[in-house]
Design goal:
By secondary structure, this protein is mainly beta. The protein contains 4 helices and 43 strands.
Length: about 525
């Protein structure tokens, strides 16, 4: 626990000085971590920002709200928030100042690019600030999180179960973990669980699935037989092997699976940040027809272990027995930072799964027997003890185009615009317009109409040397969408006002911002 004196000394904090300012910035607090320029870190909940008052903060050890002088901040890391995106992105645009966005392309003329976004409405930018554009941007966001441990099936009683069946009359408790919910309820070794919330159980696997279908904090009425005497216990479920810290699902244990149901489109883009301490060892279950089921399911399991990734095809005709078929192995090279962005591209029609690490394509697997993913379950199952973290999970629609090993283009900015086609051909000229999925290019011999579906990249003519023009201001990282540079004017529960050198004064949905790097 931090003492008030150290808080004031280290983080240059002061009590809020007016009720009107508190009211203006109150709303749903957002878990966050603030890193100062001197290296200090401060956890808590971010409430908002005002140019005159600074960053408004809340910490469990300090009564009331606090504020932090903005010039002392280096980085603000925010917990992800679930958002729904109804606008599909049709392109990814990179700007001359280093900003980049996935957008819905509306119109480009010789002066201005106009785009539609779900997080900031309609945006306009002068054409001279465009560096390159890649058609086929990220699709609409279907899930973004996690927001907490609830909903991931991490809820446990804290027992190890033994014999089961009709002869036993239920499921035998072989072990009760110290300080677990079962221990606190009075459950003992040798108890036979017969009912949970009035429902009879005689199968161990069915009971486990039933319990994990509840949420952390839920209370169960558990009937047990202790010798010849029936007893009823109230067990409040808790997360014993997984926890939620700074926007991440964190585990230190092996073999404790969590998961949830998602709505996967036919072409899906799943991404998450993966951090490990000693060694990467995690099974990722995708498109399964059972939530938090490790083997007896119809779906796919990607085993990330040490220096390889292995894809398994799991089928289960009766929900109990199962067949697991190997679809191949990919050799991996992990970054020294022990953190990587994992991206899985799933095409149900083509029955393919592609894996990218930090934007580089590792492997595309194809299931020759057709896609067997019968549901929408996503699961994580650690395979070794040691700290591992999963964060910034996003599921989006995907346009079906598998990117190459990076963002680098085979053409560079010159005196004229350049178009690179999917078949490798190039066309130079002046882009007159982009509209209605067509690009019009003026060349020395004619004005050529080109369908955007045949274009893999557009590189715009260099402006003032064509180099990246770094600008001052904070960099706002938009989860799964890109980044914008600018000065933050205000942050409240409805909007974030940013003064951007590209777009001017804009208002951004706070939910899309996952971090801010102050400069």
């Amino acid at each position: 626990m931090l003492e008030l004196k150290s808080v004031v000394r280290c983080f240059i904090l002061a009590w809020m000085i007016s009720f009107s300012f508190i009211w203006a910035l109150q709303g749903a607090p957002r878990p966050a971590t603030l890193i100062l320029k001197n290296g200090d870190r401060f956890g808590g909940r971010f409430l908002g920002y005002n140019e005159n008052k600074g960053l408004v903060w809340q910490h469990e050890s300090v009564k009331g709200e606090m504020r932090v002088i903005a010039i002392e901040a280096a980085r603000l890391q925010l917990a992800a928030v679930s958002v729904t995106n109804s606008i599909s992105n049709s392109a990814r645009v990179h700007f001359t100042n280093g900003d980049e966005l996935a957008i819905s392309l509306s119109d480009l003329n010789p002066e201005v690019l106009t785009v539609e976004t779900w997080f900031a409405g309609k945006l306009k930018v002068q054409r001279e600030y465009l560096k390159w554009l890649i058609p086929g941007g990220d699709g609409g966001i279907l899930y973004s999180g996690p927001e907490g441990i609830r909903g991931w099936g991490a809820a446990l009683m804290g027992v190890i179960l033994g014999d089961d069946g009709i002869e036993v009359g239920g499921i035998v408790v072989n072990e009760v973990m110290p300080e677990s919910p079962a221990f606190k309820s009075g459950m003992q070794i040798g108890d036979i669980v017969t009912h949970i919330n009035g429902k009879a159980f005689q199968d161990r696997a069915a009971m486990i699935r039933h319990v994990k279908g509840h949420k952390v904090g839920d209370k169960l009425k558990v009937k047990v037989m202790r010798g010849d005497a029936p007893k009823e216990l109230e067990v409040g479920l808790a997360a014993l092997h997984w926890r939620f810290e700074n926007g991440a699902l964190v585990t230190n244990s092996v073999g404790s699976m969590i998961g949830r149901e998602l709505k996967w489109p036919k072409q899906s883009d799943l991404s998450f940040d993966f951090v490990w301490g000693n060694m990467p060892a995690m099974d990722v279950i995708i498109c399964a027809d059972k939530v938090r089921e490790y083997n007896a399911m119809n779906g796919y399991k990607i085993r990330i272990y040490q220096n390889y990734a292995h894809l398994y095809r799991n089928t289960s005709p009766d929900g109990v027995s199962y067949n697991a078929t190997s679809l191949g192995t990919a050799t991996l090279r992990w970054p020294s930072s022990r953190k990587v962005k994992v991206r899985l591209l799933v095409d149900k029609k083509k029955a393919t799964v592609s894996m990218l690490l930090d934007g580089k394509l590792v492997k595309t697997w194809r299931d020759a027997n057709g896609f067997v993913g019968g549901g929408g379950a996503l699961g994580f199952n650690p395979q070794l003890a040691g700290k591992m973290e999963i964060s910034s999970i996003q599921l989006k629609g995907w346009n079906g185009q598998i990117p190459n090993s990076g963002n680098a283009l085979s053409v560079v900015a010159g005196r004229v615009d350049q178009i690179q086609f999917s078949n490798g051909d190039n066309l130079s000229g002046s882009i007159v317009s982009i509209k209605d999925d067509n690009v019009s290019v003026k060349t020395p011999f004619a004005e050529v109409p080109v369908p955007m579906g045949k274009v893999s990249a557009i590189v715009f003519a260099g402006s003032n040397g064509g180099g990246e023009k770094k600008v001052s201001g904070a960099q706002f990282v938009l989860g799964g969408i890109g980044r914008i540079t600018g000065n933050m004017i205000e942050w409240n529960e409805q909007k974030v006002r940013i003064k951007s050198p590209l777009f001017g004064d804009i208002e951004v949905d706070p939910a899309v911002i996952t971090s801010i790097v102050f400069r």
